[in-house]
Amino acid sequence: MEMAPSLDPGSPRVRFGSEMRRLREAAQLSQSAVASRLGCTQTQVSRLEKAARTPSKSDAENLDRLFGEVDGVSFVRLYQRIAAQPGSPIWFRNWAEEIEPAARILRSWDPLLVPGLLQTESYAHHLFSQAPQTTPNEVEERVQARIRRQRILDQDNSPLFVVLIDAGVLHREVGGAEVMREQLDHLLDVVQRPTVSIQIVDPKCLTGLLSAFMIAELPDGRPDVIYVDSSTEGQITTDLDSVTAIWKRYEAIRTWAYPEHVSLKMAEEVRREWT
């Protein structure tokens, strides 16, 4: 049975959903009727009301047009509060708060870094601290958002997490030898979980050097969702052509992956080199 992630009852996203439901019921509108006005499905309206989906700016604008600012409620202002929350950028929250927690299987490819779901706090802190014009408070907010995101791997119904990592990641220094030893120790520890699989990819594989990406397989016949990384804003989509292209790239990369027992031995050997 799929479990919903825990929600803060005082968060702007929860209030957005509760106000949406209250005003819809006061107007005696069905979820399907609201969906037709928002240009989405009844399921998406239900997920908005349950705070299981992050609203878009257009959702907020359409709801304000539909209900007006009844009782002083402005969905655009609530959306702005959601967007202003610390941690992950708004475009990524749809993935971190909705897609990942609901996934049956997550597949990840990373040519440059340890994937975010497996990063230690020290490793993540050093990465975020290198971003230009970032304050210490912003770094801490992003680190804590990443740590919170990792909780999905501790759930009773955690997704199967299948990880491909380029061999160069084990040798790429992030934060110094101590941070790297801790990070590799963490990889060797987390892979003992039955839901986590890690394979190292031969550095001669050039197929995946364009970008990191993730594939989420969702339950109940829902379409696969992909997240493709970039230096500015990642792409999250269910577009069939895009998903198919990423699946093909993933399978091509996987042919260069060492078996897991060999991959773990490689990680252990590199860990000893970080002295």
UniProtKB/TrEMBL annotation:
Stored InterPro entries: Cro/C1-type_HTH, DUF5753, Lambda_DNA-bd_dom_sf
Domain HTH cro/C1-type: 20-73
Superkingdom of source: Bacteria
Pfam short name (any one): HTH_31
Any one GO molecular function term: DNA binding
Protein name: Transcriptional regulator
Organism: Streptosporangium carneum
